[in-house]
Structures are given as structure tokens and as C-alpha cells.
Amino acid sequence: MAVALNPNAFTWCPRTGEGACMSRFLHSPLYLLLASLLAAPALAAEHRAPDGVDLTLDLVGNVAHNPVGGVKEGTEGSYWIMAQSKFDLDKLFGVHNTDIDAQWAWFAGGNLAREKIGNSISAQQTWRPVAGGRLTRLTITHRFDNGLSITAGRAPVNSYFNNSALNCVFMSNAMCLTPYGAITDLGITAYPNSSWAAIVRYDVDDRWYAQAGVFDFNNDLNKAGKNGVDFSFGEGTGAISAYEVGYQTSFANDRLPRTYRLGVYRNTDGGRSSFFDANGNSAALTGKPTAALDGSRVGWYAMGDQTIWRGEGKRNLALFARAYVNTGNEAPVDQFFSADFVKTGTFAGRDQDTLAMFVSNTHFSDEQIAFLRDRRARHGGTGSPHSDEIITELSYGWAVHKGIRLMPNLQYVINPDPIFAPTRTTDIANALIVGLRVDVHFAQLFGW
Q: Which UniProt keywords apply (predicted)?
């Protein structure tokens, strides 16, 4: 099935008048799609997947506008569509404890951070640098009876490591899908990009676990036109390994569920210097490419989710925190930290609504700041940008209907980095971002 949506459906046009905007929206495929969904539950019982087949079809759209700050004011919209099929081979064919997981995604739209603010941390978790369709996962998993499981195939690192559902009660890419740092520094394959992978996990009991994975690293396979179906192996520049131990509970076995994870990534591809060219000079001043590095890129991460209050049903308040520290080759980000909370169940009768907030600090390396300083000087500016970029988001997740959620949000960026404002000669003004995220989960809506 091919689904085509109009990116303009996610575009707000404040200066052309509400009538023009509404006309564009009403005639867009997105509007027609959302309108038709309201009648879907009545037909759900007649269209269920067979036992052993789990189907998912999700649409997530983001709109972001910066009325204050950045290089210039503007609005950008982006979206992704994800289709996933999980096959339980035990139920289908009698192959004990074995599953196949196939996932595909389509991305489109613009990036407010890059195109209007000038910084590198996207306010939209649905934007990706390469638009279009991509096979994001094709794996087979076998679970042994002793708690050991093995997964092999095509997979992204961040779907298995340093992962939590709480990351995406926000719209900012600083938190969702993966806390900032590891993708920039280590080049870990992240949804929707995938690579050949093998993952071994051991569940000690229903709480403690340990897992390790190895992933082929070939950044060329993430480029436009590859679409995730170039299955080349061993032609890349390195391998990524990831290791994680954790403790996790749920509402099924804990009144106050919690999750704690500690892990490390390693990429045998050493990456590139943030400052020096191959001759040991400032690449920003010479205009030459930055130098390739020997050695490895290594980064540690820790995360904790802790429910501290629980009311009736699953109404609760959870606190959580994220940390990332670069300990390998020099890379753009030295460290990232965030503190967060989410309240599930807000007003009377709004048990599924969420109120959430995070504050994060991304600390850029000395070499990255020196590169940006020299690039500024080359264009006639003076001084260095700030090394700490602080981002906060306040979001409200409104469960409009089963399978449909709207998330208005406010984001504020202090000390925006100028990585995507190459000719900027002064600091970028702090930016206020007004956002809206739309989630449509078709399986819930149709009752698949």
C-alpha cells in the first residue's frame, strides 16, 4: 500500500490569512484522512488481523514556529508514516518462540532548527535529513526457555539500546527518539536508518537483564536513494557495538514502576576531527575538510525512570533523567544531561492525557566551539558561541480519541548553536518555539 500526504498540510501561514490556510488544509489529503478516521471504529470488528500477526500503522506530524529568536522567523512542518508487521511464527507455523519483525517508514518536511533558527538540535522529532521511504527493520528473534534471546537482521541501534517510551512524551529531538549526543558523536544507526545487526539479550528474571549488540557501520547506506534496501555487508568503515544492563518493572509487577539503564557504545570508525584539517590547521580557516581520526569513538549513557506517585488506575507522576558522556575520540558533543517529568492523568476524566516537561543541557566540545569561532572570524565576526545549549519543552498530550493524540508544546532554546548558520557573525538570539504534534495510531483506531 502506498500512502501519499501533502507536506503543506502541516504548514501554518500566519501572514496569508486564516481563510487561505484553512482552505489549503481542508483540501489536503491529511484532512481527508483524519476526517475519515472518525468513522473507523464502527468498522473495526470486521477488519482484524489473523492471530499471530500484529499490524501497526502510525502517522506522526510536527509543526513548529519561532515567533521569537533564531536567525529569522518562520514555520516548518514535517511528518513520518510507519508501517510495521510482527509475525509470531509459533502461532502461525509452530516454530517455538520465534518472531519476524518488518518495519518501513516514510519521512518528509522541513526543519525549523536548521532552516530558521540555525542550530543543530531539531525541534521536530519527525524530521530526518534524508526524505522518502526506508526499510527500517527486518529481523528474526528467537527466545530460548532460559531467558536468553537472539535477534539478527537489519535494525537500528536506538530501537534496542538507551530506549524508553517516556522519551517521546515530547516533540523535541533533544529527547525523542534518543537523547541527544550519541547519534551526533558516534554515528549510531538510528530510526529510520538500519544496518546488519546481531543482538543477544539475557533476562535474569522479570526485572533484571543484560544485552549486547554489534552493528555494521556504513554511513553511505544512509544516503538518499538507498531506501534501506542496499544489503551490502562488510563494505563500511567500522562496526558499532553496544552494551547495556538494566532493571525495569511495570504496572503489572510494581505499584510504582521504574526503569534504570546503564550502557556504552563503541564505534571502531574513529570519526572526524571537529576542528583540524589533515595538515593540523583550523579547517574553518583553511576551508579544507576536517581530518579523519584513528582510534575509536566511545560514549556512555545512563537513564532512569521512576514513578513517584500513583493514583486511581494508571494515573501517575514519573520523574526521569538522561545522561550521555563522550569518553572516546574528540567529537562535537562532550556531554548531555536532562531532567524531566510526566504526569499521566491530568484533569477529571482525562486519565490518558499527559503533562510533561524537560530541561536539557548539551555541552559542545572545545574543538567544536573553536571551529565555530574561526568560522565566525572568517566571515568578519569576533568571539565564540556558547558551549552550553539549554533546551526546555513543556507539552500537553491530549488523547482526543482512541488512537489520536494532539500535543501542543512550547520550547525554548537558550544559546542556540550556529552549526547551520555558517555565515553568522554574532550569537543567535534565544528562540521561543510554538509547536504542535499530531499522532494517529491506526491499529488502535481500527481495533486491529
A: Signal
Would you give the DSSP letter of residue 113?
I
In a domain, 391, yes or no: yes
In the numeric block, the cell 501561514 is attached to 13
9 occurs within a structural domain: no
- Write down the residue that cell numbers 494517529 correspond to: 440
In whole angstroms, what is the distance from residue 209 CA to residue 121 CA? Answer: 32
Strand ranges in 235-283 using DSSP code E only, listed in sequence order: 238-248, 258-267, 272-277
Helix (H) or strand (E) holding 305: strand 297-310
Under DSSP, the state recorded for 37 is: H
Report yes or no on 419 lying in a domain: yes
Contact 432, 69 (CB under 8 A): yes
Task: Report the CATH number at residue 125.
Answer: 2.40.160.180
Cα–Cα distances in Å, from 400 out to 124, 341, 403, 440? 21, 22, 8, 10
Q: What is the pLDDT along the chain (448 residues), one digit of tens a residue?
A: 333 333 333 333 443 443 344 333 334 444 444 444 444 444 444 556 788 999 999 999 999 999 999 999 999 999 999 999 999 999 999 999 999 999 999 999 999 999 999 999 999 999 999 999 999 999 999 999 999 999 999 999 999 999 999 999 999 999 998 999 999 999 999 999 999 999 999 999 999 999 999 999 999 999 999 999 999 998 999 999 999 999 999 999 999 999 999 999 999 999 999 999 999 999 999 999 999 999 999 999 999 999 999 999 999 999 999 999 999 999 999 999 999 999 999 999 999 999 999 999 999 999 999 999 999 999 999 999 999 999 999 999 999 999 999 999 999 999 999 999 999 999 999 999 999 999 999 999 988 7
Closest CA to 194 of 213, 172, 168, 174: 213
- Structural domain contains residue 97: yes
CA distances from 111 to 63, 117, 167, 231 (A): 9, 9, 20, 29
Number of folded domains that form the chain: 1
Q: Torsion angle, CA of 11/16/18/21, rounded to 10 degrees?
A: -30
Quick one: cell of 428?
543567535
Rounded alpha-carbon distances, angstroms, from residue 412 to 174, 339, 387, 420 = 12, 15, 17, 18
| Phi, psi angles (nearest 5°) of residue 116 | -120, -40
Query: What single-letter amino acid sits at 187?
Result: G
In sequence order, what DSSP letters do the residues of 138-157 get, joined into one string? Answer: EEEEEE-TTSEEEEEEEE-G
Grid cell digits, residue 53: 500477526
- Domain span holding position 342: 38-446
